[in-house]
Specification:
Elements: H1 14-25, E1 30-31, E2 38-39, H2 42-53, E3 58-59, E4 66-67, H3 70-81, E5 86-87, E6 94-95, H4 98-107, H5 120-135
Antiparallel strand pairs: 1-2, 3-4, 5-6
Length: 136
Amino acid sequence: MNAHWYRPAGFPRSSDLQCHRRSHTGEKPCICRVCGKGFSRSNKLSRHMRVHTGQRPYKCTYCEKAFSQSNDLNLHIRRHTGDRPYICEVCGDRFIQGTALQNHRRAHGHFPAPPAEAPSEVQAITYTVQSINHSN
């Protein structure tokens, strides 16, 4: 088989594999011409450019606020709806953001700060294992 055409499963396009490799190498070839910040993907650079242009395409349907990032809008909407999907398994307190729950868990004393680079699924498993070990 020609290695040039081989792509591991899960990467249907060669560009997907290339972007994945960048997550390991730290390569950031897409550079902002305004501030010099580098990005691994062109779409991330495009999103970043809104910082410089002031573009806010994500509009709240409840009020007049607008946001440059869709995630910021989603968090904002939770303030209107009261949706608090992150629940502390120790005391039942609920939070709008996962990071607020992580900070809250530390207040219980037996949950160490999660590593900054760990994905949320890994953090959730770590906390579950630690809470089981702590209760034994």
